[in-house]
Amino acid sequence: MPGDVNDVLVAIDHVIDLGLASPSKLAAQDKFVAAASRNPVCNLALMVGTTDVPDWRYAEAYGSEGQNSFTDAPSAEHLTLFQSKSPIARLEGALDLRVPVSTGLQYARALKEKGVPVKVLSKSL
Asked: Which InterPro entries does the entry link to (predicted)?
């Protein structure tokens, strides 16, 4: 969600201001031992047809002006996690209507194919 992203960005700016992090090293994936995520959104474009809020997903994936067709996929530049080498644990909500488990499973599969160790836990949340 946009507010969640802003919270992370504010925290990053704060640790930079404190001198605890360097902006030039924030994208260095080998700095982390592992990562964990709980029901993360990882493919907005795919979720247009599977979520309970398709209008919001469409606007997020394709912009407020929209696209002429659903076949135009948005850029995947934000998926820097695909550069990760650190093990990742994912908790997927099996009954979550807002973030369908199928998108997380596809993402985990893609990471595994890149050689990233991934553990997926699915719970009826």
From this structure: AB_hydrolase_fold, Peptidase_S9_cat
DSSP assignment, residue 14?
Answer: H
Which residue has tokens 């807002």? 98
Helix (H, G, I), strand (E, B) or coil at 26: coil
SS3 (DSSP) at 89 = strand
Encoding tokens for residue 4? Answer: 């969640």
Residue 81 φ then ψ, to 5°: -60, -25
The percent of residues above 70 in pLDDT, for the chain, comes to 63
Strands (E), 1-125: 35-38, 88-93, 118-123
**C-alpha to C-alpha distances, 51 to 24, 27, 47, 103, nearest whole angstrom:** 36, 30, 5, 11
Per-residue pLDDT tens digits for 66-97 = 554 444 444 444 455 556 677 888 888 888 87
Domain positions in the chain are: 1-28, 32-123
DSSP state of 122: E
DSSP H or E stretch at residue 60: helix 54-62
Q: Taking the complete model, does pTM exceed 0.90, yes or no? A: no
